[in-house]
Amino acid sequence: MKLTRHAKQIILMLVDICLIFVANELALLFIGCYISVSVSYTVIIFLIEIVIYIMMAGILKVYSHINRFIGIREVNAIIASLLMSFMTVEVISSLVGENISQRFLLLSLLFSALFVPGSRYIWRVVSDYRSHSATNEIVKKVLIIGAGQSGDFLASTIKTEDTGFDLVGFLDDDKNKIGMSMDGKKVLGQLKDLGQVLNNHHIDQVTVAIRELDGSVYDYIVNTVHQSDKDIILNRMINMEDLISEGSKARLEEINIEDLLNRDEVKLDLNKISDTITDKVIMVTGAGGSIGSEIVRQVSRFNPKQVILLGHGENSIYLITKEMQGKYPNNEIDFRPTIADVRDRKLIFSLMEKLHVDVVYHAAAHKHVPLMEYNPKEAVKNNVFGTINVAEAAKAGGVDRFVMISTDKAVNPTNVMGSTKRMAELIVTNLNEDGHTKFTVTRFGNVLGSRGSVVPLFKRQIAQGGPITITDFKMTRFFMTIPEASRLVIQSGAIAKGGQLFVLDMGKPVKILDLARNMIRLSGLSETQIKIKEVGMRPGEKLFEELISDGESSGEKVFDKIYLGVVSEINPEDIKKFASELLVLPDDAVEDEIVAYANAHNGAINNNKSELS
Known about the structure:
The protein is of the alpha/beta class. It is 48% helix and 16% strand. The strands form 5 sheets. Strands 10-9-8-11-12-13-18-22-21 form a 9-stranded mixed beta sheet, sandwiched between helices. Strands 3-4-2-1-5-6-7 form a 7-stranded mixed beta sheet, with helices on both faces. The C terminus is likely disordered.
């Protein structure tokens, strides 16, 4: 019968009590020929020691990790608890004026400090022997990449828990660690030795235990593992910060496509962001979407007074609300789920006035390119008039900052979705007036893993055995992870002066074909198993995307990975009038008219080439 965690704690506590009793009796045996100690005297001392030891052990979490492994921290906690218990005996005896044998106390302490930690060590030796001698279990050989804090924690978990793994060793690029041992296992070499180590040691699993790793390094690891003859599991350990919040056991997760495209972490201006968000009322439209929900997560780190999660989809708003309430269970932040359509002008104005909003992040939009080609008027209603409603309501309600999330498809648009987003950009940047709401637009490309992106589609196709369908093998896109994009959106809002177009530096464009190949490799498969098929471009698609047009490029970098674009001046009323006229046209005419209009207002003439496109 498998014991519960609580039962194991009680048993270990009883073992400690018995060992301290044995230590006292042994000490008494050693000094019995020199002094006479009464039975009642030793019983009282023992009871005091046990009470204080159990109290201190609880405070120092001696019984929090019941396993066969003992490390420096566990030993320190045990010794500190024992010291406190014996010191308490000294203090109490001096207060009541009772003479006490210092020899007896010292010997008892020394024997206790030997027996209690020693029991953990014996437990570990016996358990290790039993686990290694078991012949009916298949043990997987594990190689850990990273001989640092995370690697040490993972190694301890493998050795101390019933994981079914056998740790072979470590790889680490720190030359000083080569040949040294950690948790009894050697650092076998550097990362460049991965292929050789895989072959020589018959590895079954490779686990990355490094907090920040460049995408090119992940790419090398995936390639090397994929090229080995064996079926090797490849994963990584979650960050130490997550371990602290989620529990003491190391948890593993798959390496994903975001890791392969990982870039240097953006260093945010936390003071500016805090000034913008802390103790403020924040509204996020489209809060149930990929970007909107991540913005909610990111702004919550800065302790806003209230976060209004506004969205049209009931289920998505419910899910993000429950997630955030779970992360902040003490109600230190007021999360207000609000089911509303940005096209409902009267409701949006009412909410903005009633809730006294300080900052708006406008992420609500129709974003599926082919769908909007078939439904152009819906794109106009949601992306253009929805933006007009939220922006004008923010201005009327005295909102301090308004940040609109835009897309690279708004640059030289060839489709309805991109054209409506371009019109929305023009409306927001031209609504800005000194002394009123600071209106800004933040534009970036595709975000990995967002709903409607190619990554979830490719995952489904791989799971179904293929083929992966690509519209054109020459197609490229800019990519950024959802957290990085959301953090930069928040940073843009914090540094905004109003009436600005911010463009995020997304690095080099990625070939969709390469993306598909990487995802196949991450799945542990090959292109012979999962075919890649070219199916032709869809309505409204472009072969290449741009982040900024020639006419918008200023070349001015205002923050790490944030550039400033040139804003086209236009009367928002003219855009509203044109958008209204679109709604009475046939759908085919709407597409032609809106694309022509958006391209006619694609930035002033400027021959300076963008550093981003």
